[in-house]
Amino acid sequence: MDIAGVNHHDSGEDESESQLFHLFPEIWEDIIVPKLPPTDFQSFINSCPKWRGMFKDIIAGRLLPLVLEILSKHWTVSKESLLAWRRVNRGGKSAIDKILEEFLAPKKYFNDLCTEHHEWWPNVVDENQPLRKAIERLKRCHAYKNPYEVQKFMHFAKTTGGGNLVLPKYAALSFLNFPWENGRNLNTIQFDFLAQFGGGLSSVSFRLDQATWSLLLTALFHLRNLKVLQLWGSMNLNPAQTPPKMVDAYQKFQLTSLELLDVEDLVEENIFRDDPERDGVFAVILRHCGPQLTRLICSDRLFENPKNAEALSTAGIRFVKLNGIDEKLLARLSSLEELHLENELLDRLDDFLPAINKFSSTLTHFQLSVPLGYHEYLWRSEAPDSWYPKMTHFSAYIYHSNLCWFWPFLQKKMINLTQLNLHESVFIGQRVNVEKLSKGFEMCPRLQKILVFWNVGNRENPMAGRMEMYRDGKIKRHTYKRLPLFSNN
User: Fold this and answer.
1) pLDDT value at position 473?
2) How many Å apart are CA 293 and CA 317, to the nearest integer?
3) Angstrom distance (rounded) from CA 330 to CA 358
4) How many C-beta neighbours within 10 Å does residue 203 have?
5) What is the biggest distance separating any 2 CA atoms in the chain, rounded to whole angstroms?
6) Which InterPro entries match (predicted)?
7) For the chain, percent helix, then strand, then coil, each to nearest 5?
8) pLDDT interval class at 398 (50, 70, 90)
């Protein structure tokens, strides 16, 4: 039906038009309009005043998804307003749910840790971003520091939901440890929780200070929809304490949905040094991470055990944060889109350059958290002839911008750079020279924005902030405070 062609001047056609409006209102209201996307509905009602009048009572609700992005940035946005918009109609519910899911997505986890330098951590209070505050109140994150908090939630679930309460999709669980008290195993509470609610968890952080391999594998068995897994803490385990039959018994678990694995903060070295004659539990976990694993956060110690290197499927990995330079890992990776190198003790540029030049044709974002000095090797003519045609984002320490290699490196190697992120190092303080940074727009013709973060990675300083510089000369400054993180004990 040609809706736009309904409005005619001929009287006979006006009569047909009137019949069209009034003969089948239920068809329009119940069948046609509900199936129109918001953009099509907008075009539909704008084609004729009569259409707008006919559907005036539902216009606001139907067009809500088109203006949600604008509304969500208003200073009055709150948890209550988000919930109200979610109840308007199916389109509003879908749009709000998408916002909530994005804040627990693997991409958000990776960007928070790398690109944004912890700017969106729960303990950061930013009055300039009201949506963030509202999301934090709605975000389905459950942080349990001890089994008694889990027990309290289980009691709540039993009394309010008849034992059938189910956590919504994309819920997150953090700081779940495996405690013992006075020789008494308290893990039964944890596993009762995971058995009932594990299917609804998409993000889990396990502290492994008192875990055993069997306890960890038992927990993972219940997390069939897991997208983000963080393992941290220390494990003083002797490989002999993990019988082969125990490992074999739990090889049936599947991490088929896992997209991000964060093992950077596993601090006990022997966790990576299992029996070289067979797979340890960590290798078992890696073997169950398939091509859907796209983001890896680890230290160079991860592959000290060749079994772990062999077990990791690198086919789908596109985003890596690597603490250290691990030649075994970098040799197995290909087609990286984002690479974050972090090494406070790097002293050989021969290791550094091949690490990024290998991915020069695919990298779109490179983050360099390495204390390089006044080296010209990065850009002088005899350096490897590699440039980065897809590189649009580059992140580095702010003091790098004062070194002689920095701007020529960006100018010669990253001709398509659009955004530059500069972080104040936690061990080197620098004042921001706005005039000097502004010259970067002259040297990099496609550069549109320079972001400067200060004290964001420094948890001891209660204040942090961000400065935004734009090609047109505009400058915006944001300051926010950091609350103490709750105890992990």
Assistant:
1) 93
2) 6
3) 9
4) 23
5) 93
6) LRR_dom_sf
7) 40, 15, 40
8) confident
CA angle, residues 348, 352, 357, in degrees to nearest 5: 145
* Cα-only R_g, the chain: 27
Long-range contacts of 454-463 (CB under 8 A, 24+ apart): 454/398, 454/423, 454/424, 455/424, 456/116, 456/117, 456/118, 456/119, 456/423, 456/424, 457/117, 457/118, 457/423, 457/424, 457/426, 458/424, 458/426, 459/485
More confidently predicted of 274 and 363 = 363
Place of tokens 């385990």: 237
Taken in order of first residue, the domains within the chain and their CATH numbers are 25-102 (no CATH), 140-334 (3.80.10)
The number of helices, as runs of H, and strands, as runs of E, in the chain is 20, 17
CB count within 10 Å of CB 328 equals 15
Tokens linked to 54: 């006919």
Distance between CA atoms of residues 364 and 393, nearest Å: 6
The string of pLDDT tens digits covering residues 151-164 is: 777 777 676 654 44
What's the whole-number mean pLDDT along residues 204-233?
78
Among 354, 318, 350, which residue's Cα sits nearest to residue 334? 318
Tell me what the mean pLDDT of segment 423-449 comes to: 81
Q: How many CB atoms lie within 10 A of CB 399?
A: 17
| Cα 338 versus chain centre, distance | 13
